[in-house]
Amino acid sequence: MNNNCPPLLEQALNSWRHWTPAPDEKPRLLSRITGGETNLSFLVIYGRRGKDCRAVVRINAVDARTLGIDRQREARVLAVAARAGLAPAVLHLDPEYRFMVSDYIDGRIWLANDFGDPVNRRRLETLIQRVQSLQLDLPRFDYLIHIDQYWQKAREINPGKTAMLEPEYRVFVQFLADFQHQNWQPVICHHDLIPGNLIENNDQLYLLDWEYAAAGHPAIDRIRVGLPIASSPQPVYSLVYWLDHLWHLAQP
């Protein structure tokens, strides 16, 4: 192991006997996977029944709770999404949620301009419909609590910027509180449907990074990818804006 690798990566590799299906021997590190902003991810290789296989080891951020991430909820959604062919299969989940091992999908990561292609937009329609049809008993996601967690974290890290935003933010929160208690039917939402979380393999689309997936408003994922909304209250559009803006302000 490289001495610069985090100790949890070594623990994840040492857990190989608990993976499902289990490798024939301890996996080896291939490389760091770049691009993630919250966690650390690594590509590893292992043998199983004479065949070389690859997996992704994700070392979870220690401050996940302050970013509104619920690892138990993520694990439940991932299990259902993987069975539906929407996400990589989870090979092993650390009981303390410090790391996760999942299948590596060798494909093409989408770029921003992929969202503008008419064919891809129809594929996104189908993908979101499949996500929303997942059956899982979850409580309705509380956007008010979630956005306040971002706000508190952002105030610690960027006090000057949040001070300037506070009057506008307080007005938005009043609208959001009313919206949260309106009679809309929640569905499973990915909540982070950006190009970098879409990977294409043999004309099949997979969604990565289900950390924020929850039972949310059905318009959220459609708004994020720029698909038309038949009818949706203005607070949903504002919510997407504030979620993105405060998430960035809450980063160290």
Task: Please characterize this protein's 3D structure.
By secondary structure, the protein is of the alpha+beta class. It has two domains: 98 residues, Phosphorylase Kinase, domain 1 (2-Layer Sandwich), CATH 3.30.200; 141 residues, Aminoglycoside 3'-phosphotransferase, Chain: A, domain 2 (Alpha-Beta Complex). The chain is 38% helix and 19% strand. It has seven helices and ten strands. A five-stranded antiparallel β-sheet has the order 1-2-3-5-4, sandwiched between helices. Strands 6-8-9 form a three-stranded antiparallel β-sheet, with no helix packed on it. Strand 8 and strand 9 form a beta hairpin. Helix 4 packs antiparallel against helix 5 and helix 5 packs antiparallel against helix 7. It is globular, with a radius of gyration of 19 Å. The two termini are 28 Å apart. The mean pLDDT is 92.
Summarize the helices and strands and which ones pair or pack.
Blueprint: H1 7-14, E1 28-33, E2 40-48, E3 51-59, H2 71-83, E4 90-93, E5 99-103, E6 108-109, H3 118-132, H4 143-157, H5 159-180, E7 187-189, E8 198-201, E9 204-207, E10 214-216, H6 220-225, H7 234-249
Antiparallel strand pairs: 1-2, 2-3, 3-5, 4-5, 6-8, 7-10, 8-9
Helix pairs in contact: 4-5, 4-7, 5-7
Task: Please sum up the structure shown.
Helices cover 38% and strands 19% of the residues.
